């Protein structure tokens, strides 16, 4: 049942307590993350869609400039803030939550573009932790597609995947590569890899 937020409920400290239930799904752009999140949601698990896609959709709607191809630093600022919001909201819920990208993905994006990463983003990545196991979807050329929110080609997406791997390892996460199978098999793989838990 939905309830109205009471003052003081928005507590980032809860993330540390619940981090084991905050499961990150990352990997190559166009590798099937959104479809996989939809499958996990269909099975009853809480999910949050990719922050970057939300921001791009909003900025295109309002003719804003916080787009990765227009103003990457501003885009990253908004997506990291939204990622923190998603984590905080998830930490208030019962059960396991799955995320499509997060703070470290945005840091990796800045690094790939040659931008300096502000110390505040590094502190966010260190203090606000997901579950140690991070599920990575590898490049899958056969299903890669462009759209209004994904304008880059496959080669930059594969390069970004390498930056992601390095960034997550640098922040101490254990990477688990998800096999290129059907979406149901991928969901089964993730759930069987995690400790058993019923949907929240």
Order of helices and strands: HEHEHHEHHEHEH
Strand order of the largest sheet: 2-3-1-4-5
Q: Roughly how much helix do the residues carry, as a percent range?
A: 40-55%
Please tally the β strands and state the result: 5
Topology:
Layout: H1 13-18, E1 22-27, H2 33-42, E2 46-48, H3 51-62, H4 72-91, E3 97-100, H5 103-112, H6 119-127, E4 133-137, H7 154-170, E5 174-177, H8 183-193
Parallel strand pairs: 1-3, 1-4, 2-3, 4-5
Helix pairs in contact: 2-8, 3-4, 4-5, 5-7
Task: Record keyword descriptors for this entry.
200 residues; 11% strand; single chain; five-stranded parallel sheet; Rossmann fold
Structural summary, described in words:
Residues 23-186 form the NadR/Ttd14 AAA domain. InterPro entries: NadR/Ttd14_AAA_dom, P-loop_NTPase. This is AAA family ATPase. There is one protein chain. With 200 residues, the chain is α/β, with parallel strands linked by helices. The protein has one domain (19-193): P-loop containing nucleotide triphosphate hydrolases (Rossmann fold). Helix content is 48%, strand content 11%. It is built from 8 helices and 5 strands; from the N terminus they run αβαβααβααβαβα. It has a 5-stranded parallel beta sheet with strand order 2-3-1-4-5, sandwiched between helices. The longest helix has 20 residues, at 72-91. It is globular and about 40 Å long.
């Amino acid at each position: 049942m939905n309830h109205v937020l009471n003052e003081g409920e928005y507590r980032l400290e809860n993330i540390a307590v619940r981090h084991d239930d905050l499961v990150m799904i990352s990997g190559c752009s166009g590798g099937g993350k959104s479809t996989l999140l939809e499958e996990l949601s269909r099975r009853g698990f809480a999910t949050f869609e990719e922050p970057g896609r939300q921001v791009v959709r909003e900025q295109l709607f309002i003719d804003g400039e916080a787009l990765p191809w227009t103003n990457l630093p501003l885009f990253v600022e908004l997506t990291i803030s939204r990622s923190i919001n998603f984590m905080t909201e998830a930490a208030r819920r019962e059960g396991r939550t799955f995320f499509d990208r997060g703070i470290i993905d945005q840091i990796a994006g800045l690094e790939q573009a040659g931008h300096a990463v502000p110390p505040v983003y590094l502190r966010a990545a260190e203090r606000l932790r997901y579950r140690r196991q991070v599920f990575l979807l590898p490049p899958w050329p056969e299903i890669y597609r462009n759209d209004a929110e994904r304008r880059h080609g496959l080669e930059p997406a594969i390069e970004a995947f390498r930056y992601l791997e390095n960034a997550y390892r640098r922040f101490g996460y254990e990477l688990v590569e998800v096999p290129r199978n059907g979406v149901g098999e991928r969901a089964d793989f993730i759930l069987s890899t995690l400790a058993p838990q019923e949907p929240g």
